[in-house]
Amino acid sequence: MIKHYPFQQIGKANHGWLKANHHFSFANYYNPRRMGFGTLRVINDDCIAAGTGFPAHPHRNMEIISFIRSGAITHKDSQGNKGVTRAGEVQVMSAGSGITHSEYNLTKEPLTLYQIWIEPNKHNITPRWDSKLLPKNTNDNALPLLVSGYRDEQDNALFINQDARIFGGKVKKGAQFTHSITHQAYVLASTGEFEITANQQTVRMNKGDGAEVTKQQEMMITALSDAEIIVIDAC
């Protein structure tokens, strides 16, 4: 089954320096029908103005993943981690027993990113931070694995404390391939247009859209234009 959530219908917030689009209830946006998707708790499609950002604030027991779509974000936390994550890169922070961090756009250009929160399967662990460069090439037959909670997949993916995987990358117009689903999938259209098909149901995805795919072991992805696609497979 596929449930489609067009960009125009997801939650909106304009804070001036931050324009946020909420796929699930978050902060001042509350929708009792959109409280999360299994262990997937937050997806925010954010645009952060140049020279602004999130000042230091705390988190506990949450896996927080940032997929940088354009621009660059500067991270600093109470564990002593510092780093700049740029477009085409992903960062992961395991908040664990407690961490304070800031995230700033210190460039002269807007920053766009997906902020993804997944509930962990282990609590009060030592907090950690890491980042990874995405494959730059477009793909014809698969989405690269970016994040995984499975230890045997750590050679090529950032680790999180949950039985989940995040795939993402750019695909060429005309590409068509089958994507396997372990649990249930949330699909994000970062750029471009594509179709997802499961159990004879087809949904057209446009930039900014989201879709839930449930009770399926696979889906077909067909790129109608050059596109960037993210798939979050979580229990």
How would you describe what is shown here?
The chain is mainly β. It has a single domain, classed as Jelly Rolls, CATH 2.60.120. 0% of the residues lie in helices and 55% in strands. The chain is built from no helices and 22 strands. The strands form four sheets. The chain has a seven-stranded mixed sheet, with no helix packed on it. Strands 2-3-4-11-6-9-12 form a seven-stranded antiparallel sheet, with no helix packed on it. A hairpin with a 2-residue loop joins strand 18 and strand 19. The two termini are 16 Å apart. The mean pLDDT is 96.
Query: How is the main sheet built?
Result: 7 strands, mixed
CATH topological fold name? Jelly Rolls
Which residue ranges are poorly predicted, with pLDDT under 50 across at least 5 consecutive positions? none
The helical percent reads under 10%
Oligomer: single chain
SSE diagram, text form:
Blueprint: E1 2-5, E2 11-14, E3 18-22, E4 40-48, E5 53-59, E6 63-70, E7 72-77, E8 82-86, E9 89-94, E10 99-104, E11 111-118, E12 128-133, E13 145-148, E14 158-159, E15 164-171, E16 176-180, E17 184-191, E18 194-198, E19 201-205, E20 210-213, E21 218-223, E22 227-234
Parallel strand pairs: 13-14
Antiparallel strand pairs: 1-20, 2-3, 3-4, 4-11, 5-10, 6-9, 6-11, 7-8, 7-10, 9-12, 13-15, 15-22, 16-21, 17-20, 17-22, 18-19, 18-21
